[in-house]
# Entry
Amino acid sequence: MTKIVQCIPNFSEGKNLTTINKLVEAAKSTASVFLLDYSSDENHNRSVFTLIGSPEGIEDVVIKLCKVARDNIDMTKHTGKHPRMGSTDVIALVPIKNVTMEETIKLSEKIGKRIYNELSIPVMLYANSAKNENRYNLASIRKGEFENMAKKLLKEEWTPDFGESKIHPTAGITAVGTRNPMIAFNVNLNTNNLEIANNIAKIIRGSSGGFKDCKAISLFLEDKNIVQVSINMMNYNKLPLYRVFEIIKFEAKKYGVTVLESEIVGITPGKALVDSAIYYLQMNNFNYSSQVLENYLFD
Amino acid sequence: MTKIVQCIPNFSEGKNLTTINKLVEAAKSTASVFLLDYSSDENHNRSVFTLIGSPEGIEDVVIKLCKVARDNIDMTKHTGKHPRMGSTDVIALVPIKNVTMEETIKLSEKIGKRIYNELSIPVMLYANSAKNENRYNLASIRKGEFENMAKKLLKEEWTPDFGESKIHPTAGITAVGTRNPMIAFNVNLNTNNLEIANNIAKIIRGSSGGFKDCKAISLFLEDKNIVQVSINMMNYNKLPLYRVFEIIKFEAKKYGVTVLESEIVGITPGKALVDSAIYYLQMNNFNYSSQVLENYLFD
# Structure
């Protein structure tokens, strides 16, 4: 049974095409790894890659990518809107098929160790790979950003998981973590009143008392003159799409507002949508792994 | 890109375990073919197998299966509730992945030719493989069953597509056809009034003026003391599950009856359920092939 892992590395370069192309080349250099998607944001000065492949292939490609980033991105000269602390800022790993969370955490540790040993960039483990609670949240690790990292690492609580307590002079420090698949899910409302989207985002997101596995913000979409509840679904197995969608519809009703439509940005596991179909079709005895044809098409 | 075809052969044996085991053995004898499922019905005296694999693998396995059936099932001694005309009664082929309907029709012709050339069993092509309209419907071909086939084949309009105008003395005649994936979809109603299920089945099924790609009957489920609308969805790309489900709910309302639950029997392509999720979640710009992760996991 082929093991499949997803890997989402973020690089602190969103403008220089020469560097971006070198990263793309490295991402495509291993037969057992497939580059699903990559996108660069000039404002953020940042690029996000999405890869899938065998654990060994992903390990190989990540080391190559980090070397390209280290040798081509100088963090002492980097500006951009998005918070960042390294040339390879963060690497997220996600178990996809025939691989457990535990195995993926081990892979993240192997990768972290190699990034320091072979490229001299210190590494912090975050999310499910974190060794203590205050490193679970990437934002806490990254706080202070590249410019303040040298000082931050000297504090005992911020000793890197791999490497000495000092940043790489131009590549900074990299976070490596393991998490469940995340789905970027947006719901557009038939109003331009941002307060309504904001109130609904507050109701559903975990940090303000809503669903633990839901992150949500409100946005005004200028081109459409409507507002959006923009959601990160952090664990679709525990918190299905339909539940969040129906609560948004229900709360919007209070203001006489309807849902215009929803969207998934980028890639989603098919099961996340199948789970919602099963709810709406009242299909209480459906067995995903044995009844969905695609599950037999590859092992 | 690996081509994948599904194959559903039906054999006129549902009791004799020695024969059924020989068929299972033959079904598992080729590396590139996977036996998804098989079930035998004693009342029908019939077994249905579901295989997936490469077109070449399926061709190879089907010939082996037809030989086992020919050598172990004597139609002159066969009784059972289900209509039948041969030891291998019917073989349905379904294009699944990286293969067109046209290629699958060609495969059905290749298989039909080999069944006659190598096993001396005449073959009729049906469904999308049919060479004329009156052979599209399997029931028309099979009318008269094994006992009347020798006479029927002498009529010009029923000359076999492969073979002479006479049945194999013990194995009869086999139908080979190509069709879209079919989904067996049942909806249970919160009533034991069979007339209500019957009225709804009439409304939705194509043969009585409903949806062209829908076959439906009503059933009384004795163990649960409720009625069921039992549906074959013949083309889920044209007629999605949610549309049939919602109309059943809507028509049941007329009688003050609700839908208890629905079920899919056996295997379904994941896309059929994803399509329904997209409707309920109002996800108008979703692209199945580029946004569903599983589509990248195998080529």
Notes: The CA atoms of residues 33 and 53 of chain A lie 4 Å apart.
